[in-house]
Amino acid sequence: MDAKTILNPKGWLIGVGIVNILFSAMNYLMGGDVATTALEAEYGALSERELSMATGYEEGWGLFGIPYGILAIASGLLLSGSDRAKMALAAGLTFMATFLALFIVSNGNGYEVPMEQFVPLFVVLSALAASGYLHMNDEEAEEAPAAEA
Question: What spatial distance separates the first Cα and last Cα of the chain, rounded to whole Å?
Fold first, then answer.
């Protein structure tokens, strides 16, 4: 099986969308635990007010992420050919840029995003972008012989 077969944009868009929805829902449902883990290493035990604010941030981030998962799934199901591939490339690169900025800003402010969570995310998003790149010109290649006939 070659890379182009494994990196099918439809499957990667749907898969990344499902994972995004699951992790976003988990972030919303476990906001207090996520906030405690992210902050206590840097600042020690949090006051009730600090934990409440950080929990609200995590719950908001979780709710904010769910529509992106829905959009990824919809793109995988509703688009086709090079349009789907271009969306996979754009989505993968956009997600990577967003999470890289979040990682830099959050860790720079003492809100720890562990590298162990960051690296697997980037591997998956790189595969999504690569799936789009590999299939970006598929329709054009198929249409070229018909135009010559």
Answer: 32
Stretch 89-97: mean pLDDT: 96
Query: What is the model's pTM?
Result: 0.84
Query: Are residues 72 and 14 in contact, defined by beta-carbon separation less than 8 angstroms?
Result: yes
H helices present in the chain, as ranges: 3-6, 9-29, 31-43, 48-78, 81-108, 115-135, 138-148
Domain ranges of the chain: 3-139
The CA-based angle 127-131-133, given to 5 degrees, is 115
Amino acid found at 24 = S
Residue 136 contacts residue 89 (beta carbons within 8 Å): yes
Measure the CA–CA gap between 55 and 136, rounded to whole angstroms: 40
Cβ–Cβ < 8 Å for 70, 101:
no
